[in-house]
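[Discussion] Sanity-checking designs against the backbone

I'm trying to build intuition for which residues belong where. Below is a structure token string of 178 positions. I'd appreciate it if someone posts a full sequence so I can compare it with mine line by line.
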């Protein structure tokens, strides 16, 4: 769960490094060598974008009844026994769709999984509204979704599009790559 910690006077706050996503794996974002203050150091300026990536791209532990035959549960094992009152598991259940076909109504499931994963941002007041738009492209064998987040003043503070690809049925080695 996100914690907000007040700092004393002129103390510089610790900012976790930004995460990027290349379609296959997450990585730490590094400042360019030409950066004025911290050349080649971890970049820590996109806190909200990093949180979105963590919530959406981390596999959420699920109830065993949600698993298909042969599936192993994923996610942080601590979420199954070590959660504080009111806390929810980290991550999304989008990984459950990996072995399913693109069926009628899948957009409803994708939207629900995305909203569920991002709910902690609403719970802690980091954003006040989440919009999720899902588009299904059956011929392209993909589902894309767009996430827009809004701040207290009503302005959009985050907007990005993601895809779920079903190309693994075509024998692609890295189906989630770009």
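Best answer:
Here's mine. Compare freely.
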């Amino acid at each position: 769960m996100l914690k907000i910690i007040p700092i004393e006077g002129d103390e510089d706050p610790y900012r976790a490094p930004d995460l990027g996503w290349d379609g296959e794996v997450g990585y730490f974002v590094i400042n360019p060598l030409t950066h004025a203050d911290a050349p080649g150091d971890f970049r820590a300026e996109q806190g909200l974008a990093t949180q979105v990536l963590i919530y959406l791209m981390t596999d959420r532990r699920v109830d065993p009844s949600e698993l298909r035959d042969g599936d192993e549960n994923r996610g942080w094992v601590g979420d199954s026994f070590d959660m504080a009152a009111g806390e929810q598991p980290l991550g999304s259940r989008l990984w459950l769709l990996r072995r399913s076909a693109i069926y009628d109504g899948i957009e409803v499931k994708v939207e629900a999984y995305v909203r569920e994963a991002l709910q902690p941002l609403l719970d802690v007041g980091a954003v006040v509204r989440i919009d999720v738009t899902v588009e299904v492209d059956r011929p392209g064998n993909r589902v894309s979704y767009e996430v827009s987040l809004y701040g207290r003043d009503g302005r959009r503070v985050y907007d990005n599009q993601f895809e779920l690809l079903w190309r693994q049925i075509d024998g692609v080695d890295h189906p989630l790559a770009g």
